[in-house]
Design a protein that fits this description.
25% of the residues lie in helices and 18% in strands. It contains two helices and five strands; from the N terminus they run H-E-H-E-E-E-E. The strands form two sheets. Strands 2-5-3 form a three-stranded mixed beta sheet, with helices on one face. The longest helix has 23 residues.
Length: 136
Amino acid sequence: MKWGILKKSVFVVAVSCLALAGCAGTPAAAPTVTETATATVTATATVTASAAPAPVVTPAVVATPAATTAVIPANVVGMNAQALEEELEALGFKKVIFNSDTGKTVLLLSNWTVTGIDNPGTEQATTKSVVVHVTK
């Protein structure tokens, strides 16, 4: 009896496949579509251009201030280095170099005494270095 049910199932499946295949038939040819488009385009363009003169770029002129000068003080021997530095800064000198007579590094100016200065009494540009000699 199992065998009979199996035969019927196979038969039903086979008939269903044939029926579906027969329904499908041959595909119909797609209809041919012909489309005609006619377009008439008329374009008129009027362009008026006026060229403005290009801006004139001139390089910026930076005025360099005239080198200010000051006279290096002459009577400095025995002064405290801190006091001399303040005096030189008041005159406008920006670069003061303290040179130790013993070769030590000069850190705290108030602990040093001035033993000399380069070019005393001469006028010098305040942008140049002033060398002050000191000792402890």
